[in-house]
Amino acid sequence: MSAADGYGEVAASSHGDAARSESFDESLAARAARAARAELRGDRAGILGARALPDLPGMARETRRVPQHWSLLHVMERMEEGFRVLARLPAAARPRGYINSMPHYRYEQGDLNAQLETHELEALARLRNRTRIPPSPAEIARMEEALHWPAAFLCGAEFHHVARAVNLGSLWSAYDADVDGRLRRIGMTRRTFNARRLQGLRIITAELVRRRVAIR
Q: Chain-centre distance of CA 96, in angstroms?
């Protein structure tokens, strides 16, 4: 092989490396732009460097459907979503109480075998491996907006019981609580509670429409 042929191969190789480097930079810039847009939308799956979650039952991200106009149903869904997002925040919602200061217990082999037979060991492993996914900035913004509605639109003394019904109803629905049992504790019938909650949701919906609040 002549020197000219060797020089040509080296030049072609260097040119190919430069082209691959340029295309890599372009793809990286495109990925960074998509990641920035995903962060603004609150879509954590499109963030640069994030790994996609496996298709496990209950792990699929639900697609939000935003209607064109405010409705009582959408206001109720936004309130329930706000309480669910509030529960996912990493900060504690209340002062920390008494805790156990005892050292971690080490199980013996006999205890582990007994737990394995009763499937208690598997349940304990699932509990320790549980991961809490923090909410996105968009979810936090919607939470702050929705949870402020009762205080902003039901602030009068005549709406005290109405605002309480709206907050409690959304909180119980978000946590799938026993509504009948909770109502028996506070001494209220389901009919009265539903009437007050619907009245509050109607007032909030009317105020959002009147003030032309952007729907999201």
A: 23
> φ, ψ for residue 85 (rounded to 5)?
-65, -40
49's tokens:
């460097």
User: What is each CA distance from 133 to 41, 45, 88, 115, 195, in whole angstroms?
Assistant: 17, 12, 7, 29, 35
Which pTM value belongs to this model? 0.57
What 3-state DSSP class applies to 153? helix
3-state secondary structure of 193: helix
Least confident segment among 21-35, 59-73, 147-161, 169-183: 21-35
DSSP structure class, residue 46? G
Q: Please, are residues 151 and 163 in contact by the beta-carbon 8 Å criterion?
A: yes
Both structure tokens of 14:
């260097």
Min mean pLDDT across 38-42, 45-49, 81-85 is at 45-49
